[in-house]
Fold:
Amino acid sequence: AFDTVFDHYDVIDHRTKAAYASSFTGNPDYRKEVWDWVTQGSSLNLPHSVIATPGGTGAVSTSMVTFLDAGQTVILPDIAWGSYSLMAAQDNLKTVKYQMFEGDHFNLASVKNAIEEVHKTQDRIVLVVNSPCHNPTGYSLSDEEWKELTDLLNEAGKTGPVILVNDIAYIDYSYNLAHSRAYMDCFNQFSDQVMGVICFSCSKTLTSYGLRCGAAVIVAKQESDVRDAEIVFEKNARATWSNIPNAAMKNFVWVVTEKRDTFLKEKQKYIDLMKERSSVFLKEAEECGLETYPYKEGFFVTIKVEDNDRAERIHAELMKNHIYTVLVNKGIRVACCSLPVKKAHGLAARMKKIADSVH
Ligand code: PLP
Structure:
């Protein structure tokens, strides 16, 4: 819990904490600061609207519910944060998965295939891309991959509307923060048929998971399309969570304005720490031949185990040896975000030995 976040939160007036937000779409100053924060260092300049949501979860789930009807299909990565599938199931949506990787790159061809498959039964495409700092692999699409993806979405837009849900939950832990939003310049090239919803989370940025606060940032070429989406997002907010904690929004504004430099400095310490932990783990993994998915930055590294039954057995065996990981599709996730450097040393070799003993 960052001091630069919570020292101020603690002294916020009780009446501010008790008060309703000033709008179901969020407080105006929060909405403005989120836009500036999310797009800093990029030249994204499309018409836009920011809707305050309960964390990134609220932003992703309300996107699915807004743009798709029950029985329709949302496109998800095959290796992903498990909640995406849960959200789809809760909304009675079907899912089609694209493969995240082709070798050590983002699998654009698989995204294309997924879009083509969905186009057989519906005109509208909703595609979830979790980058930068993908959970669970730590992958970030390169600027080139974003350009190619944008072209692909514009092409798909010729068949029907396309909504890109870009989950940026971990963006503020990118290793090159100054460049972390540069890829958003691509969104300026969206055709009239493509809309973006950038899902932002204060849970990670401010280390405040329990103080439910985040945002859905809607961008599109036509102001009227943004406005139409904004209206539905506002109604969904009113009908589900009502409003976002007033003091959480006020605190975000205060941190990124009054406390910006000290906050960034405090956060950087933890980015550096995570880089140290992941570097130790990855270096040793390479040395001992423990295969991982391509990691670039962020909280997690995932060991590649394509056979899910075997992954389950390895996961159980790791636990018997007091190595606590998370089982994901086609792999086993190691949380570098909670792994002390001294425990990172030797971990890869221990995991490799255990994995090798499981058939
Ligand atoms: N997206 C991803 C990939 C996540 O891992 C998480 C949280 O773990 C979230 C979004 C949303 O978290 P929150 O709703 O707390 O902002």
About this structure: The two ends are 41 Å apart (CA to CA). The chain is about 45% helix and 15% strand. The chain has a mean pLDDT of 97.
